[in-house]
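Show me any protein, fold above all:
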Amino acid sequence: MALTDDKALIEAFQSGDEFAFVSLYNRYKNPVYAFCVKMLGDRTLAQDVMQETFLRVYEYRDRLLNTSSFKSWVFTIARNQCLNQLRRAKRQVSLEGEEGSLEPHIPHGQVDAMEKSEQTAMVNHFLTELKEDYREVLILREYQNLSYEEIAAVTRSTLSAVKSRLFKARRKLAVYLAPIVQQQTKRKPVPVVPPAGGTPR
C-alpha cells in the first residue's frame, strides 16, 4: 500500500526507507524553497539552502522524536540555514566597508507599468527590508500558512512573541507599501460619466 500521509512517510523514512525520504522531499521542497527565496531575496542561494536543508533532514532524521512535528522541524532547519547565510552576508558587507540603504528605493516612473509579477517582486523587495525576526514570522504565516503554534516552534518563541512580531511586521510592510498604493490610486484613470439625458459631445 502506498504511503500518503506525513506520519506514515516519516516513520518509514526513519526506518531506512529511501523512497519515503524522496516522497517527503518532493512534498516539501517547494514550500521550503519559497520560504528561502523570501528570506534571502536570491533564488540561486535559496536553491542551495533548500538542498542543504534536506541534506540535514536526511542526516539528522534520528533527532526527530515526534513525527507530527516534521513540518515545524524542516522549517526550523531551513530558517537556521537562512539566518546563517544572512549573517555571512552581513559580515562580508562589514569587511568590505559597504553600507546598505536603510530605505527601500522604488525607481521613479515604474509604478504605472507594474504587472502582477512586478508587484510580487516589489513585495519581496520590501520583505528583505524587514528585520529578520519580523520577516520570518510574516513569511511563515502569510505564505506558508503555519499556525501560531508551529511558528513559535520554528522560531523558538512564545505565542505572544509571535503575535507581537506579526503585528509589527504587517504594520511595517504596510508603511513600505503605502506610497506605492497611493501612487497607483492617484494615477488610476477616473471614468467619465455622461450627463443624464444624452451623450457627451
User: Anything to note?
Assistant: Helices lie at 6-14, 18-40, 43-59, 70-96, 116-129, 132-143, 148-155, 159-187.
